[in-house]
Design goal:
7% of the residues lie in helices and 38% in strands. The protein has helices spanning 41-47, 53-65, 308-317; strands at residues 18-19, 34-35, 82-91, 94-99, 105-109, 113-117, 124-129, 141-146, 155-164, 167-177, 182-193, 203-205, 212-216, 235-240, 256-259, 264-270, 273-278, 285-290, 324-326, 332-338, 349-354, 360-365, 372-378, 386-391, 397-401, 408-415. It has two domains: 5-69, no CATH class; 82-168 and 260-415, 6 Propeller (Neuraminidase). The strands form seven sheets. It has a four-stranded antiparallel sheet, with no helix packed on it. The radius of gyration is 26 Å and the shape is globular. The protein is mainly beta.
Length: 416
Amino acid sequence: MTPKLEHFVVLPGKFSLRRKCRNLNKFPVHPCGMILEPVDLYTILMKFPRKYAWLFALSLTTAFFCKKKDSGNPSPTGPVEIKDSVIVNNLNFPWEILWGPDGYIWMTERGGKISRVNPATGVVFPLLTIAEVVSNGEGGLLGMVLHPNFSVTPHVFVVYNYNNGSNYREKVVRYTYTGTILTGPQTIIDNIAAASVHNGSRLLITPVPDLKLFITTGDASNTSLPQNASSVNGKILRLNLDGTVPADNPVAGNPYWSLGHRNPQGLVLVNNVLFSSEHGPSNDDEINMIGKGKNYGWPNVEGYCNTTAEQSFCAANNVTEPLKNWTPTAAVSGLDFYTSDLIPQWKNSLLLATLKNSRLYQMKLDDTFSGIIETNEYFTNKYGRMRDICISPAGKVYICTSNGGNTDRIIEVSKK
């Protein structure tokens, strides 16, 4: 007969338990991680001495109620009730929000303003308005990141669009925070092609001691650039903090880390792996896991390698397919990773702000941090277009909108 769960019991003598390192194919696995002999219940009841009855009862109880000791305390899944409240009003196209080591939210607005926001009071403290910023279409002052060792090295990196003669361009500039203002601008990289759309512009610095600056760039509406390794557009770039090219980049002297991108606007580090959110055309928005020297296909591949032409290109160019895609598009933007216990259902999840779909996506990762096992949606159409996300050390989530007209807000999200 085929043994069932209730027929796997812990018995003395020759029927004793076997550890999971032996005979894995011969015997089934007990829920507690032990390999047990298949035994007929009738044989046990009729032929075993009464002194073993307690062992039989114990084993049945264990089989149904014991949990693996090495499974830890997995976080619950499914949608969760949360509370949300507006903490700041009257903003104009905020693009980046991040949680600073001073307990404030640091923010850029597309018109050129950098500010600090007190999350408890909602008071906005302007730091600097960059006169060189030119906001054409979706361009302007975009991404920002703080040095990971900010108390010792108070550097603030921003990326923005500007005019270089008659050419619209993009640059990354480093400022120093004095405690009240930003001063001493130093250009890290400039003359990146820009346009009214597709400028990428999310920044990330890896933790100490690595300290590498990652920059997402869009194709600037020129589809010939992403597959051109000599162009810095349609790439995720990797630089030292002084703007030099690291010796271990994919190509010596070349700042690109990955290529074949259309317009990546989200970037987060999870378990030492980069995840990015990327805008597709009218189809195939993507979540990608970014690898050294990898090709993500644009413009020859949209989303997965699922047409004949795409499959041929993917095979010839070792294209990496997305972890997840959206068709129709959701207009994916800011991306962060939730590790707090405050909202346990969200633990080990990617949180994604979307513009067109006007909602927050919570995407639970598997135990290897390489697959999405569950997706939930929140705030659909409640606040309009959502641009970016940041998370406080206490686990509260903050979202900024992108509706324009001085109507934008920052929303605080917490456990209900």
